[in-house]
């Protein structure tokens, strides 16, 4: 698989590409299946339909990897927290974690088992996906999940979760450790079900100052990746901490690919991390509104990475719901074309 080879820094005929949120609302085919399912969470829990939307971007856009269709928040949900997706407002946990009793009521082993519909989706996808295309499995970073669990929803200030960090760090560490235990089991079962690459999304990394970031997030991400790499060295691990360009000097640990978000200069990431890790990214997602901006963006990235074998093309965050499909196609084919190696 060209995608797996690229993750491991092996030579490939061109730089493989996929897009974060590639199975999503910009595709009319996705909207149709979501409608049939009823709502987003029902779609996540329906292996046949989740498999179908996972394969859509591979068929329609020709990306080099499929990403499991699911959400990072199904994990806290199956640990026992009620989860709603409110139209136009995003995810909501109506009863966030507040007390030690709330924390202790969360399940670990049972959660990993209840996520069976995800493992079934993976088995279905791997059965249908072309043999040369990789399937990426994923989870949220413990910090990002714990933020949702404590705040109950997206937040601008992170006031509740940061209050805990500075006033009751032991409580946060207990919560993070518990979530980390579930995620290790969850990712392991995803691997056993057939994923070829594992990715961890730390969307709220940028909420923390430097020392707090390493103590409350990066250490737990590394714990997951070390656990997986020790048991499954052939499965590449991608870590994606969003928005921490100021902390690159302290990035370390056992994993294969560092996901570069669009706000981090790719040149800087290459300088600081390019020898240690393969880099993934980092096209600014709103460039996809304009073909001229796409061409400019792709060319600059190719130039920065010197078209070597240590890069995976991607956006620097998820694709937006109103991007024209035609532009997404143009992005994919242009990147594949301009990185062809003799
Ligand atoms: O990338 C993919 O195509 C695979 C599927 C995937 C989804 N969510 C599907 C989804 C993945 C990998 C995620 C990860 C995820 N989910 C993250 C981490 C990555 C990131 O974007 O930073 C986060 C923070 C979430 C939580 C989440 N899920 C939010 C905040 C929202 C609402 C915001 C929005 O875009 O509407 C979701 C919903 C969600 N997850 C959708 C999809 C396709 C949209 C649901 C719909 O209305 O159909």
Give the SSE layout.
Elements: H1 2-7, H2 28-37, H3 40-44, H4 47-61, E1 65-67, H5 74-78, E2 84-86, E3 90-92, H6 100-105, H7 109-114, H8 116-128, E4 134-140, H9 142-151, H10 159-167, H11 169-193, E5 197-202, H12 210-231, E6 237-241, E7 257-260, H13 266-273, E8 278-283, H14 291-304, E9 311-315, H15 325-338
Parallel strand pairs: 1-4, 4-5, 5-6, 6-7, 7-8, 8-9
Antiparallel strand pairs: 2-3
Helix pairs in contact: 2-4, 4-8, 9-11, 10-11, 11-12, 14-15
Bound molecules: coproporphyrinogen III (CP3).
Structural summary, described in words:
The chain has 342 residues and is of the alpha/beta class. The protein has one domain (2-338): TIM Barrel (Alpha-Beta Barrel). The protein contains 15 helices and nine strands. The strands form two sheets. A seven-stranded parallel sheet has the order 1-4-5-6-7-8-9. Helix 2 (28-37) runs antiparallel to helix 4 (47-61). The chain is globular. The model has no long low-confidence stretch (mean pLDDT 97). Bound molecules: coproporphyrinogen III. Coproporphyrinogen III binds next to strand 3.
């Amino acid at each position: 698989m060209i995608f797996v080879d690229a993750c491991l820094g092996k030579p490939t005929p061109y730089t493989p590409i996929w897009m974060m949120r590639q199975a999503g609302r910009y595709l009319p085919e996705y909207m149709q299946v979501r409608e049939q399912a009823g709502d987003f969470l029902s779609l996540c829990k329906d292996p046949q339909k989740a498999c179908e939307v996972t394969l859509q971007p591979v068929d329609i856009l020709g990306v080099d990897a499929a990403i499991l269709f699911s959400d990072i928040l199904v994990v806290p949900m199956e640990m026992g927290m009620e989860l709603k997706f409110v139209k136009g407002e995003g995810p909501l946990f109506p009863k966030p974690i507040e007390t030690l009793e709330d924390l202790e009521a969360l399940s670990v082993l049972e959660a990993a088992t209840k996520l069976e519909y995800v493992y079934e989706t993976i088995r279905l996808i791997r059965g249908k996906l072309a043999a040369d295309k990789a399937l990426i499995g994923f989870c949220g970073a413990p910090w990002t999940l714990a933020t949702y669990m404590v705040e109950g929803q997206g937040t601008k200030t992170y006031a509740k979760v940061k209050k805990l960090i500075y006033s009751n760090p032991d409580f946060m560490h207990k919560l993070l450790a518990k979530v980390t235990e579930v995620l290790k089991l969850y990712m392991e079962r995803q691997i056993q079900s057939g994923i070829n690459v594992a990715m961890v999304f730390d969307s709220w990394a940028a909420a923390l100052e430097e020392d707090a970031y390493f103590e409350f997030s990066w250490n737990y991400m590394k714990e997951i990746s070390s656990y997986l790499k020790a048991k499954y060295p052939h499965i590449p691990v991608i870590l994606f901490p969003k928005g921490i360009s100021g902390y690159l000097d302290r990035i370390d640990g056992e994993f294969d690919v560092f996901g570069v978000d669009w706000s981090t200069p790719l040149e800087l990431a290459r300088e600081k991390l390019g020898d240690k890790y393969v880099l993934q990214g980092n096209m600014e997602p709103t460039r996809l509104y304009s073909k001229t901006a796409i061409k400019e963006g792709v060319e600059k990235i190719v130039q920065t990475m010197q078209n070597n074998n240590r890069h995976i093309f991607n956006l620097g965050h998820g694709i937006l719901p109103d991007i024209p499909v035609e532009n997404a196609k143009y992005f994919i084919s242009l990147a594949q074309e301009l990185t062809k190696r003799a």
